[in-house]
Structure formats: C-alpha cells, structure tokens
Amino acid sequence: MARTDDQASHDQQLRDAATRLGIGRRRFLTVTSAAAALAFTTNLPSAHAADAEIAPRTLTENPFTLGVASGDPLSDAVVLWTRLAPRPLEPGNGLPPTGVVKVDWEIARDEKFRKVARRGTAKAHAEFNYSVHVDVDGLDADRVHWYRFKVGSWVSPVGRTRTSPARGRHIEEVRFGLVSCQAYEDGYFTAYKHLANEDLDAVFHVGDYIYEYGIDAVGGDRKYTDRTLPSLFNHETTTLEDYRLRYALYKTDPDLQAAHAAHAWYVTWDDHEVENNYAAGIPEKNQSVEAFVARRAAATRAYWENMPLRMPKPDATDLKLYRRHHYGKLAQFDILDTRQYRSDQANGDGWQFPTPESENPARTLMGATQERWLMDGFRKSKAVWNVVPQQVVFSRRKNTTAAASKLSMDAWDGYPAARERFLAGAEDIGVENLVILTGDVHVAYAMDVKRNFDDPDSRTVGVEIVGTSIASDGDGEEHPGNWGTLTAANPHMKFYDGRRGYTAITLNEEHARADYRVISHITRPGGTVSTAASFVTEAYNPGMQRA
C-alpha cells in the first residue's frame, strides 16, 4: 500500500526542520529538546483550523478498533483515550488525510451509566491521527469509574478506571501491576488477558511498548494461519507513519485492549519506542543527527498520540515523562525517564569490564535536572513507601563469579556515578522504604539494593522488583542458561525467573509484596497463569524475603 501524500509531507516537514537546526551530534540535551519541539510544533490542528468536520454518518465502519484506555489518574482527574481507526492496518487508518471528527464521551459512577459524573465532546483531528485525549476533572477521589466514547451510532467498548486517593488520606492498601517489553512478533499478549482480571488500582508500564523491528506476514512467532499482515510492517520503523501503524498493530491485540480497558495506566518509555539502546540524541546506528532528530520527533509524536497522557505544555522543550504521583499517605511514585537525557553508553555498549570511561563521575542516566527533581521529591515525601518506577536494572549484576566481571553498559552498572548520587542523596535525606521497579531485561528478579555493591555485607537500603516481559524473547524458561552463574555471582539477587508474565505488587503499612506471575507459554494462544514466587519486604526493615 502506498503511503499517503499527507503522511509523506509530514515526514518531510520533520526532516527539513531538523536539517535547519544544524545541531552538533554530542549536544544531546539540545537534540532531545529539538526532537520534542519538532514533534509538537509541526502540522498541528491549530494550523488547520478550517479543516472540514467529518460527518459521523460517513463512518460506515467501526472507528473504535483500537479500544480505549485511561491514564495518569489524580485524586480528582484522569485522562481518557481512544483513537479512531476504521481500518487500522492501512496508512491513514481508513480516514481522510485532513478533517476533524467530533467524539462524545462520558464517565459514570456505575457500569450501566445511570449515574454519569461528567460528559462532553472532544475533537479528533487528522493532524493527531484522530486520537482523543480527554483530561476529565471534577471526579471523586479513590473511586472506580466507567467511561466510553460515541461517534454517531458507533459506541466504543466500556473502560474501567480509578482515581487515586487524596494525598493526605490514610489508606490501608494499594495494589498495582508492573509490565514492560511487549515485542509483538515474539508471541501473544496472553499475560494481559490475565492482568485484566486482576484486582488492581493501576498499572505501571516501564517501557518498550512497541518494538521498531520489522514484522513478517505471519506475525513472527505468532505464526498466524488465519490472517496475513501487510508487507508495510516488514521493515524497521523510522517515519511518523511507520510508528503510527506499529502502534495500531499492537493495539489491535484483544488482550492488550482488555488490560487497558480494565485499569488506569501510568506509562513511561525506554528505548524501543524509538530505537534499540539509543542514548538521548545519539542513535544506535550510524545516522546523521538531522535524520535521528526527525526520527525521534516522529516517535515522540506517535507515542503521545497513542498513550493516555496529558498534552505537553505549550512551552515544553520535551515530552517530560518523569513525574510524581501520590496514593494517600501510603505511597509516593516517582516515575523516571532514564533514556531521554542519558550520556552515551560507555565502552561501545553491551557487557563490558568497567573502565575510567564508564566510571566517569560526569556520566548521567537521568540528567542533572531530573536528578534534582528526584531528590527534591524524596526530601518532601511523607509517604510510607517511596516507589520509583523506571526502566533499566538498578542493582549490580555480575555475569561471572570472578572478582572482575563484565557489567551491562546500558543499565545503571554502566553509570555507577549516577547510581552513587542516587543512593548517597537518598541516604542523606533519610529515605526509607525504597522500592525500585524495573523492566527491560525480559526476566524477573527480586533484589536487595545494597549501599555498597562491592561489599555483600553492606547495609540493604531498599529493594528492586524487576518485572519480566509481556512477550519479548518468546516463551522463556524458569531457569535460563546463566541462572546458576548470576545467582551465585550476585548474592543480593534473591530470585531469578526467565518466563513471560507480569508482577502484581501490594503495599500496606506493614510490608510490600511482589507476586511474580508467569505464563505457561505465549508462542501459541491459551497460556495459563501461575505464581512463580512471592516476596515481601517489611516496612523499615528492607530486604527481600520469601512470602
């Protein structure tokens, strides 16, 4: 299928604008800002104010093929999302290249919509790929709500969401899911089918919502026999149209739709939403800075269009995904972005021995501004639990029992000075009950966070819960080939499982509990769920213990 002239024009606008910037390759903060600026200043609805309204009666096919979602709940507000796509696997999604559709929405206190709390009309603009983001306020705190969208005679699936408790309120318990890494071509999203049935207050997705790699006609390891994917998916995503279509493909998955419809999500990204192991303005592959700025701008725009996120402020210089949320007096969630502001990976990336380059004290994973923001949040926190959802493994991971071992240059091991600033700052402030949530590595770990990883007997200052992937790396196995080596080399690693799944995490005033849920298989439908292990860490007595 040919790309639409409108899409091609938009991609050319991004490339032309990036070329005009003339940015030096290593000024990564400027590249980051430039990419986001391009993403949210080119081809906006405000520049097309005269676009014709598309009459609902002309929509002869269901426009709600991608489902609904909600996200970033506050005590009185939540973002509701959908995207109109009658033909989601075609360029343009079966809608005109220009125009606007009026979409009615409502949110109620009951599933039958007899007690409607708020209702209104939003506009789905072609310039935003007919996505809808409604920031509904004036809602009751700590309450389940149901929502839906309407266009003409078409009605969306019903979504369920929940506002958070008021910040100063005492609550007994909060329960949430931890998910990440869902390579479509590696298997079915069966984990989401089971996650949708969990009793959760919210879900944290910590990155790799899509993957940029090409997907063949049978869906990779899904091995479809009942459908054929268009050839336009069988190449790496680089343009805005590529990223938009990739999100559309993922969001046609019924299990992913069910998980979004069942729970409110807090999302942040990692690398594959753009390109594997990119670092701020530095690509993995050999691209010109202008080409990479344009690619990042396209990826940023498509990510926002497809996530239940609020619109960036008009003067924003990036899509700021690090943010803070509170659940009464029980928990503070500091969601990080360790991809958009980081220094380039040291020593050529991969697993390498530490060197003066990797140990350079100037190296950063979060950037100076985000580091200050995190410490300021720690300083002001009055919550029982200080929870940090983020992307890459925080704790030390040696891959041999020898004294000298290679470490992952893409994780916090490749940025030891940044980790030390994190731990030293938390220690100086007196942070207690620290829980770090992680994705990225497609396996599950339960780890103690040591004040000094070089000394196994040093003080435990928190715990890290690493959630496995939804689909990435296929079925997996309980004990991967390096299981014995890693558990022996890292005594703070209390659990390691290589199967697919998700983690259900419960917080109360006495302890934090992690239930590691695993799926029997994902390379064919019908996988069953079980609990591989459960661990708890007691409040004010950090350390992972079998439940």
Brief characterization of the structure:
The chain has 547 residues and is α+β, with helices and mostly antiparallel strands. It has helices at residues 5-21, 28-39, 190-195, 240-251, 254-262, 289-306, 368-380, 416-429, 483-489; strands spanning 68-71, 78-83, 100-108, 116-125, 131-136, 144-151, 154-155, 159-162, 173-179, 202-205, 264-267, 323-327, 331-335, 351-352, 385-389, 407-408, 434-438, 444-450, 460-466, 476-477, 493-499, 501-508, 511-519, 529-538, 541-546.
**N-to-C span:** 54 Å
Strand content: 25-35%
Radius of gyration: 23 Å
Class derived from helix and strand content? alpha+beta
Fold and architecture overview:
By secondary structure, the protein is of the alpha+beta class. Helices cover 20% and strands 26% of the residues. It has helices spanning 5-21, 28-39, 190-195, 240-251, 254-262, 289-306, 368-380, 416-429, 483-489; strands at residues 68-71, 78-83, 100-108, 116-125, 131-136, 144-151, 154-155, 159-162, 173-179, 202-205, 264-267, 323-327, 331-335, 351-352, 385-389, 407-408, 434-438, 444-450, 460-466, 476-477, 493-499, 501-508, 511-519, 529-538, 541-546. The strands form four sheets. The protein has a ten-stranded mixed β-sheet. The protein has an eight-stranded mixed β-sheet with strand order 12-13-15-17-19-18-21-20. Strand 9, helix 3 and strand 10 form a beta-alpha-beta unit. Helix 2 (28-39) crosses helix 6 and helix 4 (240-251) packs parallel to helix 6 (289-306). The chain starts with a helix and ends with a strand. The model is unreliable at 23-29 (pLDDT under 50).
